[in-house]
Amino acid sequence: MTQTSPEADYIFEALLLLNKQISSKFERCAGISASRLQLLCKLYQVDEISQTLLQKEVGIDGAAVTRHLKQLEAIAMVTRRTKPEDNRVTLVSLTDYGRERIVTFKQERSQFVDRLLQSFDETQRHQLADMLQVMNGHMSDMD
To answer: Out of 18, 51, 55, 129, which residue is the most buried by the measure of CB atoms under 10 Å away?
Structure first.
């Protein structure tokens, strides 16, 4: 059996705790979950996209995407329709109301990150961003 290092255990536990805290506090602060905001931000970049492609682009479980979209549709932020040429494809787009709200959500996200990193100087913020990008690359390599 391979033994883990105390440092690896500490970092893993710290990442888990940070993820949990960020998700919870961001949702309370902005009034929307990070997953839903991620979906809305992607939809903001396109006029319309298939639900399957949206799910792949954001990397969220298909069932969770369906659940989020149904709830966003219920509050008139997104619309979903069947592609006329292929009834198996569901197309998703932001409503005008959704486009208005995404601007507010993005401002909330920016303020949240600024508060989270308030004690970091510009160099440290760049270093953190670089390290997170490297970690994301490693996660992609693990697939």
So the answer is: 55
